[in-house]
Amino acid sequence: MSGRETVICLYRVKQGNERKFVRLLEKHWPVLRSLGLVTRRKARHYRGLEKDGEPIFVEMFEWTSGEASEKAHTHAEVAAIWEPMDALCENRAGRPNMEFPHVQPLEILA
User: Fold this and answer.
1) Considering the domain boundaries, does residue 39 fall inside one?
2) Which of 25, 26, 61, 97 has its CA at a distance of 20 to 30 angstroms from the CA of residue 17?
């Protein structure tokens, strides 16, 4: 796939690590943008609680292409954010600590 691709990032943040995680989120999209991996459309962020009351964060943004997420893995600047993000998250109820479904817009006629 070569066109723009939206990713919905689900982060299951360990209780007590929310503030540290937000500081990493503040850097995440700007670094991806500086490397030309995401579109100009700014990331959207949400915070909530899962059914068990544990914190979950959601980040949505657009990769410039289907290959951009793979390219991100080759940049030290991205790893410097992703590695600490990973450490601040936890597996829950058989679900991974982070999930990244890639989606395409769906036009629904009302």
Assistant:
1) yes
2) 61
Measured between alpha carbons, how far is 90 from 67 in angstroms, rounded to an integer? 27
Instruction: Confirm whether 85 is domain-assigned.
Output: yes
Residue pLDDT, tens place only, 45-65: 999 999 999 999 999 999 999
* 10 membership: H or E segment, kind and range: strand 5-12
State how beta strands 98-99 and 5-12 pair: antiparallel
Cα-based distances in Å from 93 to 47, 51, 78, 100? 19, 11, 28, 17
pTM for the model stands at 0.91
1: pLDDT confidence band, cut at 50, 70 and 90? very low
The string of pLDDT tens digits covering residues 11-39 is 999 999 999 999 999 999 999 999 999 99
Give the CATH number of the domain where residue 14 resides.
Answer: 3.30.70.100
- Is 20 within 8 Å of 81 (Cβ atoms)? no
Supply 5's token pair.
């691709």
